Amino acid sequence: MSDRSPDVVRVGLAQLRMSQDPEANLAHAVDAIRKAADQRAQVVCLPELFRSRYFCQSEDVAKLDLAEPVPGPTTDELARVAAELDLVVIASLFERRATGLYHNTAAVIDRSRGVIGRYRKMHIPEDPRYHEKFYFTPGDLGFQSFPTAAGRLGVLICWDQWFPEAARLTAMTGAEILFYPTAIGWHPEEREAVGETQFEAWETIQRAHAIANGCYVVAVNRTGFEPNPAGDGGIQFWGRSLAIGPDGRVLERAPESDESVIVVALERRRIREQRDGWPFFRDRRIDAYEALFRRYID
Q1: Digit-coded pLDDT (tens) for 14-33
Q2: How confident is the model over 227-273, as pLDDT tens digits?
Q3: 48 catalytically annotated
């Protein structure tokens, strides 16, 4: 089948290393989008919070100055590029909704249409060097998918990757591809003991999302080491951005330590084949899941 067929979506994964300069990071992201366009990408996903280093390693009120409205200056620039290159861009940004109210928000920018939708990260972690609850209010836009020129795309963000409910509800809105802009890595001092186990868990649960929902999953991570401004170590982001097929196979995987712009052709017919063969949506017992609305069953 030709990769120019309407049944094929060419997806770009822009795995990047971030600097301390937001404008330089934006220019670097635009360059990556252009590289993906040179490979005939129809949609390009950037890493989580790509305009800066991962500032959530410590709690610092001054970092709130990194926030901006969405739509705003960054989406305006990305919209110009998306229109010029005739493609879709998925960009995770630090959204200033109002003074004292901030979100981790992914904007979906569709060619000349500009920003057609936003997803606000629903699950907000609080762990050593991942102090996101200090910065972000949980999302209030729900789980969504967006009709674009590249198909119906679902967008979730990083920590959302660990929750099967988020993947299921997004797939139930018609998403053909679940995108996860991501910033995840090791504490260097823990890597020898648990590093590979952590990575394998991360990959495994995303493969499970693809299988359980009969759709593609694309996770785009950052790479490189970023020191903790508070002086407590840092994070070695593990890269390895990946695209997963509806049957759970890893179709492409970026390297661990290098920047990479990968474009992979995803065939829509594989979704139909998988869902017809393993009809999980048909066999869901929606009459028996009331307990999911509880925190825990005592």
Answers
A1: 999 999 999 999 999 999 99
A2: 998 887 999 999 999 999 999 999 999 999 999 999 999 999 999 99
A3: yes
Domain range 8-293, CATH class: alpha beta
How far is Cα 233 from Cα 225, in angstroms, rounded to an integer?
10
3-state DSSP assignment of residue 263: strand
Give the helix/strand (H/E) hosting 213. Answer: helix 196-213
The arrangement of strands across the sheet holding 8-15 comes to 115-120, 101-110, 88-98, 43-45, 8-15, 260-267
The question of whether 84 is a catalytic residue gets the answer no
Which residues, 6+ apart, have CB-to-CB distance to 229 below 8 Å? Answer: 55, 57, 58, 60
Question: What are the beta bridge partners of residue 177?
Answer: 153, 216
208: three-class secondary structure by DSSP: helix
As a dihedral over the C-alpha atoms of residue 26, residue 27, residue 30, residue 35, rounded to 10 degrees, the angle is: -130
Model confidence, pTM: 0.96
**Is 63 among the catalytic positions?**
no
Residue indicated by tokens 């869901």: 284
Catalytic residue among 158, 176, 215, 226: 158
List 194's β-bridge partners, or say none.
none
